[in-house]
Every structure is written in structure tokens, then in C-alpha cells.
């Protein structure tokens, strides 16, 4: 039996049993939401702080709904509008909020490692959940991605997945790889322009490609990453049409993947840059399923940490 | 028996029975709020999204309170602060939010017809409620206005009402006329400067006036509209004092109306421009009753659509 | 038996019995929160409006948590973002919100006396709670300060307290003095640069000092005030290091106080200006206890006013 999680800052080195327990919990949350007409009250009397240093209405709303559906109170503390943004002042603000009896802090920050900083400074009894730090980790996204895959392809030992785009700067890619590896995925492929691929010594267990037609061959799932347009400049494909031609996903290219391969994207999508509308809105797209699973995964994580 | 409403984008062509059922429901909500010491839990587990493209603290707060008093969760998504404001990106954001299991979207937008656009794009199972689109419709305002009138003058077949001000640009005026007509109001009068009157072929069942002293004669209710000061320029009364003299409501002019005529205004009022303080704060003013009824009407609409 | 409070705008002239009842209630709230796994439902169905004209995430969050933990709904109305900021328009907005059936208004405003203005204009049945007005009063801060002291030094007739810093502009200092006097504190000392001391005829029952080493001698509690840096200019110590040398609290100076003297601060603290980190983070610091007590005191005040 694995221990109950206290914090969730990364999926790296998380035991397979813990990940599977969280996915199972997420499925229970889905069932409870589908059947019940009443809110769950697992977290009644608990308080969750949303501490977002980067704007993200989607992820913040997902966490907020997850917490409220379990009966918790949610405080949205938009640090951008406050005077405190770093160092001692930030920790004084954090301790002040904790002294009002917080149970969990959901944090997003552009600097990698901030969640661990908070874990070091957080008071005993307060859980920290990483909602994305720099290009390092986005663990609930990793969990919701493997949950979505598991619903359609339950046998990970047979699974082949390609992750395509700006892998170098993607916290989603890293958390996906960590979760896929933990669950025993057979074949994990990374694909992107050379300038946007991670360093050679990072993610050593993955196959690397710079030709998407080759990378996609026969895979069970294609995870497309959002391209920050300003990063396209750094590649040798500095315009949208050329980028799309080489690394975009359209129906022609999707036909090279395995039959009925899952199409996934963490959103928000750039239509016509990394993904064609015919694919994003097509029958193999699981993009909106991912969003729905996101709420259940966050309910599972909050429930795991905060239920009495 | 009329069908349960799925969406509410306009009152135009809504059957009288549906409107009356909503008004009756609003009265039940009022009674439940007055007697009960506990919140109603009709919408426990339901989630309502407030999607306001125009700022409106008053209407948004009214919808938020209505939803919360029925036990629903409310997400305020201020689109002005997000990157998505139109077209495909907007619909991707909408679908993302829907995939988190929304039950209703309350939308305000300056472009007429946006609520119907959302109805076309919304997923099955999500209700759309118009909180005001362009100069076209504001159906919950129309409902709360006829509810306020019904509480004091229940016989609509005897009713004479004047709506005065910038009728041309007023979604309130249009929804009021639709609701009053559906309920069989005998005599609906529109009054305003020629430049601010609607086209001749619009609202054909109404009498038209440009002389307020004549228009107000003997009416049971006077609905004053808020004047956007920048629109005064377009009239031949381009200063506040001249406008007030011709189209403002003071005690002298109110005395020309029927005995105890109701004074109404959707708010916020411009004191000294369209309405004198002696009238706004006087014994015939129902302006704050309208606000209170607004919460009950919105509870009724949400209950009609979302109760299981 | 003292009467139930209707409004709370200042602690000045509040009877000792009322203050003690509120402190006792706050302790009950603390116990209920500590033992129960469920939210209290004392205020279910009640609505509290947070009306903040000055930004204050900390105090607003404290009131919001207090209200929600008692089951109330909370509306945050950020007046800074609305068009209404003063005079008639403000009262029209206030009445509009009241007509949606508010039970209490929590107000912060930079102009002293605004809460009393609201009391004069508020509808019957709506309670007004001052969350800080100008330099005049911050009654819930005064209550949470005496609660914190009472937990460690229950005999006020033996108590000696010094309040140090910009007393002249501090609403916290005034509410602290009022609460301490009402509870019979033996010795209340005020200390600060001459330019930042209140007028001679104000707070006549307090001893006055401009030498902190003398003022702190033997006291049971030291309440440090936050220094607005722009006000330091007005003193004869116009730089941070010189100010800290004369009026800052470090371990050397704290050793002059009574054994184990309590160190308090309303926050947010300016480290190295009015207080050294060694003291703020040291064993005698009660600063975070104050924050925790703040929620309980606000629960007590809301419960006193709004419970049916």
C-alpha cells in the first residue's frame, strides 16, 4: 500500500500504484458526479487557495470547480494584482493566508521549482499542488492525459504515443512522459523542430524524431503541444504555414497513425498552426474529454490530500 | 400545457402561458426566500457560468445571487480579461468550459444575436440565458418589469403603459413591449425624441409620441429608460436641461398620469436627466421593487431550466 | 444584559460587556472550527457584501472566509472598477444592492466616517461593519488584538501595552486604545516620532513617548504599526535605517520589555523598517495568531448581527 500524498509537485518518481490510485479515484468522482444530484461533501469545511502568478482562466476554473464540487471553499488570490510578488513579502503573504486556516494551495508560476519552494515554506498541514511551473511539471495535466488514454487503451504495455511540438519548453510533455513511463507505456516518442527538442540527456527513455511523418507511424495516441508563436522564430520554420506543413496534424498525417488513434491537446489549441480544424473537431479528437477528465483528476487529488 | 424552457434569448413570441408560469414561479421564489431560514437546494450540484462581455456589476450580481440562493455554483468568467473575444477562439473557450460540465451560460454582449449564436454552438444539455444583447433583448428585465406591474395592477387588459426615452437603442424597451403584449396589455405607448425612436415598422402595435405630456396622460405605469449621454447629442435637445424639460419625469408631469401610476426604471438612473429625484425617491417609485423582483425572476428562470 | 449589536463602526464607547461577549463568541467559533468537520450553518441563506474602496486582499479575504465558514453567501463588489464612487450615485448603487436582499455590508474607505454615512443611508435590516475608515477606526482589528492579548494575559487590570509607530495616521491604534480602555487595561503607552503622534487632546488616557527605549520598559505587549514609507519623509528621521534605529523593534530593544512580552503587528510588516526579522519570526511574535483570531472575531461579529 502506498502512502497518502501530502503534496503534488511533479509526477517524476511517483510510484505506479499512487498514479493508478489517483486515476481510479478520478473515475469514482466521475461516477459520483454522473449519478448524484447532490454535491459531494468530502471537503466541507476545507479551504483551497488558488495562487496563480500566471493568468490561466481554464486551469484555475477547473481547480475551482473541482474544489467546490467537493464542498470546499475556494479563495482566488490573484497575485498579479497584489503588491507581493517575490521573496520575503511573498512568504509573509503566504503565512498570513495560511494563518486563516488554509488546507491546500494550488500554485502556478513561470519559475520552475516554485511549488517546491512553497512546500519548504508552507506550514505543517497545508498541501501544495502544482498547477504548472515553468517548463518543468504540470502533474494534474499528466494525470488527466493518462486517464484519457486509459479510458480508450487500458493496456499501457502495448501503448505507443507520440508527443509533438515545442517539447523543449513544455511542462505538459514532461509530466506526460513521467506518467506514461510510470504506467509502463511501451513506446514514447518525442517529435519537433531540432531547436525545440529537449537536451539529449533529458527524458532518455524516449525515442526522438524531427520528421513527424515517421514519428506518427502506427501510434495509438498523438499528443499535440501548443506552440507559442514567439518560439517559432527560433526554429528553421519561422512561419506558420511552413511549421504546420512539417509539424501540424491534419487528416493526411493522422492516417499514418494506428487505426483510430487518439488525438489529444492540452489546449488552448492554435487552429491551423499545430492542428487542423478537421482533426481538432474530428471523430478521433479527445480534446474535450481531456477537459472533462481534468475536473475529475483534480477532485481526486484534492480528495486524496484533504479528505479527513 | 406549455413546454419547459430550454433557453431564454428573447421574449418575442414566447407564449403567454410560459410568461405567466415564470412570473408565478418568481412569486414562489419570493415566498420561499421570505419564510425560509435555509437556502433552497433546487440547483445543488449545478454550475452556472456568467459570461459578460460588457461590464455590468448589477445584473451579474443579480444572476449570481439568484443561482447561489438555489444552491448552484457560479463561475464568473470575465471575457474582457481573457485573450478570447470572438470567433473560433471564443467557441473553443466555450466548449472547454462546457466540458467542465456547465449547466447554464448567462451571457451579455454588445452585439445583437450573440445569445442565439451561443445556442447554435452550445453543447446539448447546456442552457443559454440572455442577460442583454445589443439593443435587441433583455428578457429577464422584461419579465421583472411585468412582474412588478402585475403585483400592483393585475389586470393587463385594462393596462396603459408609457415607455419613455431612448427607445431606439433600448433592449429593455423591446423586451418590455414583448412581455406586455403577450400578457394582453391594452395600451402600450412609446415616447422619445424623434431621433431616438425605433423605425416605423418596428413594434407596430404601440402608439408613438414625441410629446411626453400627451404620452403620459392617464397611464397606469411609466417606464423611464436610461439615457446614454453621448446619444443626447444626436437629438435636437443636445443639453441635459433641455432634454429633461421635454422628456424627464418630475412631479408636475407625473400628475398627468393616472392616479398612483407606477414609476419604473431599469437602472442605473441619471438623476436630473431622465428622472427627478423627487420622483425616483417618491412614493410612486417601484424602482427598488424592480431590483428585488429581478433576483426572484432569475431564480425562476434558472429553476425552470435546471431543476432536475 | 447588553443589547445585540446592529452595526459596528467603532469600538469607542462600546460597553465592556459587549466587547467581552464578542471575544467569548470568537473563542466559541475557534472551538467549533477546531472540532467540527462540517461548516457551521449559522448564516445559511444570509448574504454579505464586501464593499472595498481601498484594496485589501488580506482583510477582505478574512471577512470572506468568516462569512463563508458560517454558511453565508459573499458578494465582492469592487467599487474601484465600477463607475460609482461617491455621492448620490454611490447611494443608488448601495440601494440597488440592498434591494437584492443583503444582510450586511462590510465597508473599507479612505474617508473617515464613511461607515456612519452608510448606516444613515442603509435600509432597515441591513447591518454595516467597518473594515477600516481613514485613520479613525478598524474595530475588528481592535477586537482581534485584545483577543490575542487576552489569550496570553487575561488580567487586563495588570496590563501594560505600548503601541509604537505612526500613531497619528493609524486606525488600528485608535481601535486598540478603545478596546484596551474598555477592558480596563492599566497602562497604555503611545510612542512615535513627534510628527507622527496624534494631537494632544486625542486619546488623553494614554502615556506619550518619543523615546522607544523608555516606552517599552516592562510592558506586557508591544503593538508595532506599519509605517507608510511616504510618511517617514515628514519625520526628522527621513531614512529607513535611522527610523529603524529609533523606532524599530529588534531583540535588543525587546529585551527591555517585560519577560516574554507579546509582539504584535496588524500586518503587512515592513521587515527592517519597523520590525526586525529576528523579532517578527521569533518566539514572542503573535503576528500569525492575530491573523487566525481575525477570522474568528469576524465570525463572531457576523454571527452576533445576522444569526436568526
UniProtKB/TrEMBL annotation, chains A, B, C:
Identify the PROSITE patterns for this entry: CARBAMOYLTRANSFERASE
Q: Where does L-aspartate bind?
A: 86, 171, 226
Query: What GO MF annotations does this protein's record show?
Result: amino acid binding; aspartate carbamoyltransferase activity
Please name the GO terms of the biological process aspect recorded for this protein, alphabetically: 'de novo' pyrimidine nucleobase biosynthetic process; 'de novo' UMP biosynthetic process; amino acid metabolic process
Query: Which class of enzymes does this protein belong to?
Result: transferase
Keyword presence, Endoplasmic reticulum: no
Q: Which InterPro entries match?
A: Asp/Orn_carbamoyltranf_P-bd, Asp/Orn_carbamoylTrfase, Asp/Orn_carbamoylTrfase_sf, Asp_carbamoyltransf, Asp_carbamoyltransf_Asp/Orn-bd
Membrane-spanning residues: none
**Which catalytic reaction applies to this protein?**
carbamoyl phosphate + L-aspartate = N-carbamoyl-L-aspartate + phosphate + H(+)
| Residues that coordinate or bind carbamoyl phosphate | 58-59, 108, 138, 141, 267-268
Matching NCBIfam families? asp_carb_tr, PRK00856.1
Q: What does this protein do?
A: Catalyzes the condensation of carbamoyl phosphate and aspartate to form carbamoyl aspartate and inorganic phosphate, the committed step in the de novo pyrimidine nucleotide biosynthesis pathway.
Quaternary form?
Answer: Heterododecamer (2C3:3R2) of six catalytic PyrB chains organized as two trimers (C3), and six regulatory PyrI chains organized as three dimers (R2).
The protein's name is: Aspartate carbamoyltransferase
* Source species of the chain: Dyella soli
